[in-house]
Amino acid sequence: MASGRNGTIYIGVTSNLPVRAYQHRNGLVEGFTKKYGCKLLVWYEAHDTIEDARQRELRMKKWKRLWKLSEIERLNPNWTDLYETIA
């Protein structure tokens, strides 16, 4: 989730992306995404297990910001909100 192009980025994991993205978009989740206005789904990837997804999340949270921006732009160079493609 992001607040906008090159804005604040949030990385998380869920077993139900459409529901979780909806919650973030509508400010239903207290915490980081609500505080910083991270309402745009600009990147995601699927994993076979929640454990695999969690491991990837933990690795990515240690990345430098530039690496995260590069990963987003590799999939979504225009920072288009991808929510409609998964809902």
Task: Summarize the structure in words.
- This protein is mainly alpha-helical.
- The protein has one domain.
- Helix content is 47%, strand content 0%.
- The chain has helices spanning 17-25, 32-36, 50-61, 65-75, 83-86.
- The protein starts with 16 loop residues before the first helix and ends with a helix.
- The mean pLDDT is 97.
- This is Endonuclease.
Task: Describe this structure in a few short sentences.
The protein has one domain (17-86). It contains 5 helices and no strands. The protein has helices at 17-25, 32-36, 50-61, 65-75, 83-86.
SSE map:
Layout (H helix, E strand, L loop, with lengths): L16 H9 L6 H5 L13 H12 L3 H11 L7 H4 L1
Number of helices: 5
Q: Strand share of the residues? A: under 5%
The end-to-end span amounts to 15 Å
Q: What general outline do the C-alpha atoms trace? A: globular
Specify the oligomeric state: single chain
Mean model confidence by pLDDT: 97
Number of domains: 1
Say how many strands there are.
0
Radius of gyration: 12 Å
* Sequence of secondary-structure elements: HHHHH
Helix/strand-derived category reads mainly alpha
Low-confidence parts, pLDDT < 50 over ≥5 residues?
none
| Main beta sheet | none
Indicate the percent of residues in helices: 40-55%
Protein name: Endonuclease
Organism: Sphingomonas panacis
Keywords: Endonuclease, Hydrolase, Nuclease
Pfam family, one: GIY-YIG
